[in-house]
Amino acid sequence: MQPDLVVSHLVKDFGTFRAVDDVSFPVPKGSFFSILGPSGCGKTTLLRMIAGFEEQTGGTIEISGRDMRGVTPDKRPVNLVFQHLALFPMMDVAENIAFGLKRRKVSSAEIRRRTEEILERVDLPGYGAKRINQLSGGQKQRVAIARCLVLEPSLLLLDEPLGALDLKLREQMKVELKKLQAKIGTTFIYITHDQSEALVMSDTVAVMNRGRFEQVGTPQELYGDPHTPFVAGFVGDSNRWEGEVVEMDGETVLVRTDEDLVFRARRKADAGKGPATLFLRPEAMLIEPVDASGLNTFPVTVRAILFDGANSRLLTATPSGHELLVALPQNRAFDHIRPGADITLGWHPQSGIAFGRGEGRP
Fold first, then answer.
1. Do 195 and 176 sit in the same domain of this protein?
2. Which of 14, 190, 310, 350 has the most CB atoms around it within 10 Å of its CB?
3. What one-character DSSP code corresponds to residue 268?
């Protein structure tokens, strides 16, 4: 099946500054593809080139097999949803959704049919006569998406659309958007700096940094097997040590940290003897392990208990003061642990990842 979008060697220069640097990727038909990265990494510039609002300096953009060079935004089979939804408050829901169809001079009967159909598909049946100020934040979001989908684009481009919502609604809308995309089958390309949004909703995520893609993969691949220090530090929470590889043994290395702790960890290809950075997820650490054989173990002092329901953690510190976050598992009781307590932590060598120290740090 032909991808809905193929980007090849895309470059965008603003004077001497290169905002997008030789980016290539396909987006399969009907998938949810997210571009994740910090502010200023080039992701919005990339989206604007796909939409036609910026002209590329080099490379090609193909949508549904057609080269988009020279094709104006209004002639491209894409629609864009912004953080600020730009719904028309003087129009009702149906009029907002029908706006683009009217501009295309579609017949009144066809507009009515397609508007009612798209309201059903975004789970807002019977909402056509409602005013925009009568809707909740999540309902407004769905109307903005419906206004785009009714035009039947090949691609729906979403530029941080949940950024203006409060936290609880944002969490709810992550699930709603994922369900909506799966239901309607339109290809979504989603721009965000929020790793949780990208991981929860996407089939594929591209992590962008300084104009380039550091890694493209499933959320599980990015989280479990990051290819660069930037991805390891940016996707999910990680504890981090600087140190030095003092011994290599096949796929593992022995790392002596700057505070003189010694750990065995998984080795990435660039980790040879010499300076290294070690990453370890908070949930990878075992508190007071019953069987410590084969584990890296070390003492810490509990500084605080960070209660957040199922996401509760300990803030701990090693004897030299290096702070670490440790996840509190739900299947064991740790009521005896209090701030100031001295405990032992352990982790399996395959849980930590050691990178050679170089470019690409978060």
1. yes
2. 190
3. P
Residue 1 has pLDDT above 80, yes or no: no
Are 271 and 356 in contact by the 8 Å Cβ rule? The answer is yes
- The span from the CA of 78 to the CA of 155, in Å, is 5
Q: Which residues contact 225 (CB under 8 A, 6 or more apart)?
A: 217
What confidence tens digit (pLDDT) does each residue in 289-342 have?
988 899 999 999 999 999 888 888 999 999 999 999 999 987 677 778 899 999
**289, 312: one domain:** yes
Is the distance from CB of 80 to CB of 157 less than 8 angstroms? Answer: yes
Specify the range with the lowest mean pLDDT, choosing from 26-40, 104-118, 161-175, 263-277.
161-175
- Torsion sign across C-alpha atoms 128, 130, 131, 132: negative
- Residue 344 and residue 288 in contact, taking contact as beta carbons nearer than 8 Å: yes
What are the phi and psi torsion angles at 88 (to 5°)? -90, 110
Domain count within the chain: 2
Residue 315 sits at the vertex; the CA angle it makes with 310 and 319, to the nearest 5 degrees, is 150
Query: What are the tokens at 44?
Result: 């919005």
Same domain flag for 97 and 144 = yes
How many CB atoms are closer than 10 A to CB 117? Answer: 12
Q: Final residue of a domain: which of 195, 229, 263?
A: 229
CATH number of the CATH domain containing 163: 3.40.50.300
Q: What is the pLDDT of residues 116-132, one digit of tens each?
A: 999 988 889 999 999 99
21 plus 151 within the same structural domain: yes
| Residue 133 three-state SS | helix
- State phi, psi for 79 to the nearest 5 degrees: -135, 155
Q: Are residues 218 and 124 in the same domain?
A: yes
Q: Are 156 and 93 in contact (CB under 8 A)?
A: no
Its domain, for residue 223, covers 5-229
